[in-house]
Specification:
Helix content: 55-70%
Number of strands: 8
Number of helices: 21
Strand order of the largest sheet: 4-3-5-6-7-8
Structural class: alpha+beta
Shape: globular
Distance between the termini: 30 Å
Order of helices and strands: EEHHHHHHHHHHHHHHHHHEEHHHEHEEE
Strand content: 5-15%
Radius of gyration: 23 Å
Length: about 450
């Protein structure tokens, strides 16, 4: 068993005992002969239920698209009892939706139904399961699957290394990378991106720079813009802004918008307003649409992918999703449309005093409106992620983890608030924003306050 220091995760190293004596390593995996899940013995809809079965299967598709994941799983279970084989692509779509909505309990149910329906899975399907659990913020479940996989490929390791880093388990990510290399396998460029992210989590810029040099020297991989952005992110996470700027100046290619946005974000976080303003000026020259009011006021840049996603789903800025008992609830800043809004705001007001007694000081700079201090504090307390958390406290099991999705970057005040709240209520709060996962436990966050 391996344990990560500082509240990490546990997993067993199954690399040796799962290797086939006849297995080849040329694809980065241990081998065993398993039937293809894509060749499962699927019966036609017409042979097993006619129009009613077709209707139920179509309902699964609709529920999945609409985010009604519990309803989709209920239909899966019903069809399974009726002996109807649901095709793999529908399971994959449902697993993707579970990851996007961070619906862990539903994800586990989908996984169980998939194994009952198709007991022998191909490695690519296992990889989608790993992705699902990683996106749900549960690397414990991902490792449980990883350890039991009869076969692994390069994507398997990529997913686990980047998943650990994304969820704040930097040591596990680096350890997996070293295990991968010890087996004699050759990493790809995508894997190094995950390693750089892990070094950023650990604030270990020396190891990160060594890996960057090794990528080209030992493996002949030419750095891409994604690699450069990951390195600037790593240096920024550690607060090494001068080193990040020096690194940018020595780049072999012209730095793009993502580079300057990354440096600007960390300049704001570390209080280097002069450097942050310089980055903002460059972004303004290159593409003014990438800056919003907050960016110009010295806060954070817009993520274009978030804007596209918001436009597609017609969501408003500051939206928050909460998974409570396998159902998804949606919130917006200042929202009072929920039937329990009075209880939600009452709980937040009660927490406010406890938080201040525990050392919380509202960072009202995150409120851009010109109003008095008390109104600014009230506005902060009504941020969508706090409304989601409050309703979660009211409706979920005591001491169970709370899972929140934020479609934009979580603000600094909410980040500090969640650290204190996690200690007051004695619960883990898992928040996924546009940048990464934040695991708040006992007064601290897995990102080490650099995000």
């Amino acid at each position: 068993m391996h344990q990560q220091n500082g509240g990490g995760i546990y997993y067993s190293n199954a690399g040796n005992n799962q290797q086939s004596s006849a297995g080849s390593h040329n694809d980065g995996m241990t081998h065993s002969r398993v039937p293809s899940d894509m060749q499962s013995n699927e019966e036609s809809v017409e042979a097993t239920g006619g129009s009613q079965v077709r209707s139920k299967i179509e309902d699964i598709d609709e529920f999945t698209k609409e985010g009604k994941l519990k309803e989709a799983v209920d239909l899966l279970e019903l069809l399974q009892k009726e002996g109807v084989q649901v095709e793999l692509p529908r399971y994959l779509a449902l697993m993707k939706a579970c990851g996007e909505n961070q619906a862990l309990e539903v994800a586990k149910s989908v996984h169980q139904h998939l194994l009952k329906s198709m007991p022998h899975l191909e490695v690519r399907t296992y990889n989608r399961i790993l992705e699902m659990y990683s996106n749900c913020g549960s690397m414990e479940d991902a490792f449980a699957v990883f350890d039991q996989m009869p076969r692994r490929n390069l994507s398997t390791w990529d997913i686990m290394i980047s998943g650990c880093a994304k969820n704040g388990y930097g040591e596990d990510s680096v350890e997996l990378f070293e295990e991968f290399k010890r087996s004699g396998l050759k990493p790809d460029g995508q894997m190094f991106t995950g390693v750089f992210s892990a070094c950023g989590v650990l604030c270990d810029i020396v190891e990160g720079m060594l890996h960057f040099e090794s990528m080209t020297k030992d493996y002949g991989i030419v750095p891409t813009m994604e690699h450069y952005v990951s390195m600037v992110d790593m240096l920024g996470s550690a607060g090494c802004l001068n080193e990040a700027l020096e690194f940018i100046e020595k780049m072999q290619v012209e730095p793009g918008l993502d580079i300057w946005e990354t440096l600007m974000r960390f300049s704001r976080i570390h209080g280097n307003m002069e450097l942050g303003d310089r980055c903002a000026e460059l972004i303004q020259l290159l593409d003014p649409s990438r800056l919003n009011e907050q960016s110009r006021a010295g806060l954070i840049p817009i993520n274009p992918s978030d804007l596209a996603r918001q436009k597609e789903k017609k969501k408003l800025s500051g939206q928050n999703l909460l998974d409570v008992r396998s159902r998804v609830h949606e919130y917006r800043a200042g929202d009072r449309s929920h039937p329990d809004h009075e209880r939600i705001y009452a709980l937040l007001n009660g927490l406010k005093q406890q938080m201040k007694e525990a050392g919380y000081v509202p960072e009202t700079k995150f409120v851009l409106h010109d109003v008095d201090q008390e109104v600014k504090e009230e506005a902060l307390m009504a941020h969508s992620e706090r409304l989601a958390a409050a309703q979660g406290f009211l409706t979920s099991a005591v001491r169970s983890p709370l899972r929140i999705i934020k479609n934009l970057r979580v603000c600094g005040d909410c980040h500090n608030a969640f650290k204190i709240i996690s200690k007051i209520v004695g619960r883990e709060i898992i928040a996924r924003d546009s940048k990464r996962f934040h695991h708040f436990r006992d007064g601290s966050c897995s990102c080490n306050d650099y995000w």
